[in-house]
Amino acid sequence: MIRWIVLSGLGHAIVVALGLLLYVLGTRIGHQRRHPSAALGWVLGMLTLPYLTIPLFLFFGSRKLVRPRHRAPVPAHHPVAGAPAWATQLLAGLELPPAQPNVRIALHEDGGQALAGLLATIDGAVHQLDVCTYVLASDATGRQVAQALAAAAARGVQVHLLIDAMGSLLVGRRLLRELRAAGVHVRRFMPLLHNPLHGRTNLRNHRKLVVADGRRLWSGGRNLACEYFVDRPNRPAWVDLSFEIDGPVARQAHVQFLTDWRTARGLMLRRMRRVDQLPDAGAPRTGALAQWLPSGPDHADDTLHALLLAGAWHAQRRIWLVTPYFVPDDALLDAWCLACRRGVDLQLVLPRRSNHRLADMARERALRQLASAGARVWLSPAMVHAKAVLIDDQLALCGSLNLDARSLFLNYEAMTAFYGPAQVGWLAGWIDALRTGAQPYEARRPSWSRDIAEGVVRAVGFQL
């Protein structure tokens, strides 16, 4: 019996050692930078429950599917008229497509207007239509969009619909069967049950975009469900943002979609395949300046996190933020607090209560820290689902990125940077109006039990 216990203890120690070795190899060789709470959680799990933690690590452990590569020195920067040099130079160093003039840009705050723009984009497609969404519901709005996609396929348009397997877990199978029967190519991004060597179940595609013929883009923060567009009895539509762009940014989003479509099963491309040839009318030389900014496991850098961090240091006058969930990492939170202390007007608009109660609890420590540094935090009575960032009078961001660690470090996300005074001014006015109907946040010292609960939730905030 004693010999069996010794051998069992030795066997358990070997399993623990192999688990820790797997963690080290998986993070160091792949250059997987981790949030401290996530790293601590994995190590403690390997030590205490290795038989459960090791399989979980195989499915959920990696957060990057692309390794950093040696880069040539960044070429001499050519300033872009109307865009801040610090931003364009940083994004060029991160190898993102450059800012370009576009024919037309229209931002939507009204859900009805946003839905009309979405349907117009679908109806205007002639050759090819790309649709990517996190949530596709089987409600009235989801079916209205599905009918428009089926009609596009019926008139000969090549329609591809990419939905996230987790976000659209409850989408009706009947709706998907109807779409496939109508000729729509449907694919689920990163199925929940798949070969763990082909990807990670925890890496979700949160991007929202509709591209018609590589020329017209509809994007923003809205998913394809009623709550993002229309009021219902006792259920008002959420506050959200979307936009339309006619121009080169649409082609950049089309290239993004092609990559996402081919990697939806978890297989990473060794190199980008040739982009499908679409009729191209040529890029305009003048127009509203915008830039497509993707971020996620398919990029070696945390591009949007880097941009927000640089913006905190370069902002001179204001940083205005709108987000439904606020669980940033310590580096970004400290940078925003220091920006407040050097006189930058930092204002944050959140819903008083979001649709994720754990996220509301996890945000409290960060809100108290911001408020003590001099930031003004506003709580909207409505559910705010919009994601927007305004830095000085030169840069506005809008898209799918929440200001939490999951969006910053785990999800496939996409924001669009607007540099034109019309778009920056529009967004500033919209945030002003949103702030008018909100109440100021009052920081209160928590009880010891509340403080412990916040700490526990904050420890897993990286996974929220």
From TrEMBL:
Signal sequence interval, chain numbering: none
Keywords for this protein: Membrane, Transmembrane, Transmembrane helix
Presence of the UniProt keyword Manganese in the record: no
Spans through the membrane: 6-26, 38-60
Ranges for domain PLD phosphodiesterase: 201-228, 380-407
Designated name of the protein: Phospholipase D-like domain-containing protein
UniProt xrefs under PROSITE patterns: PLD (PS50035)
